[in-house]
């Protein structure tokens, strides 16, 4: 703390100084909590990514069972997140993007772990970088058209949810290629505050995977 800041703190008196210290401590705790939650989400996204990479080595039942278990863990994580955020507007602001990204994963609206991870961490710049890399990979034949379309739709939806402006071409691409589940996800999550509706959709999709 510099001399000016220290002098200002002294002139505020013990009560105000205490409030500033409490606010600072609260901010530090929020930062640590967010970091811990991001680490938990990274672990779950890594599980999904590893599962997709090993899909050819697993039989269909084993793959579905493992994926269902991971989605159930995500659902439990989402429930915990909702309780943590309850009544705390600072945490709602900090973690709402993470909650929406998790719900997109649970509902199977998003299927690409890395896109979900970047969406949760509110990283529009990295999402755009990934999209540019995908464009190049498609042109040189390194990325199959169907996978490109799926991931591009996910990225554009994430960017829109993060408040990023899309080009007219991107909007047209999204309208033409969004599937039924993604369209429903888009409809019930028109803003970050509509978590209950999105959670209802997510719960419905999880129940469908159990049948």
Task: Spell out the blueprint of helices and strands.
Blueprint: H1 3-11, H2 13-53, H3 60-85, H4 89-106, H5 113-120, H6 124-139, H7 145-161, H8 168-177, H9 180-188, H10 195-210
Keywords for this structure?
Protein LZIC, about 210 residues, coiled coil, 10 helices, about 80% helix, disordered N terminus, ICAT_dom, beta-catenin binding, mainly alpha, about 0% strand
Overview of the molecule:
- The radius of gyration is 20 Å and the shape is globular.
- The protein is mainly alpha-helical and 211 residues long.
- Helices cover 81% and strands 0% of the residues.
- It has one domain (33-190).
- It contains ten helices and no strands.
- It starts with a helix and ends with a helix.
- The longest helix is centred in the first third of the chain and has 41 residues, at 13-53.
Structure summarized in a few sentences:
By secondary structure, the protein is an all-alpha fold.
Q: Number of folding domains? A: 1
Q: What is the share of helical residues?
A: over 70%
Rg to the nearest angstrom? 20 Å
Number of helices: 10
Strand portion:
under 5%
The profile of the biggest β sheet is: none
Protein name: Protein LZIC
Subunit structure: Does not interact with CTNNB1.
GO cellular component, one term: nucleus
Pfam families: ICAT
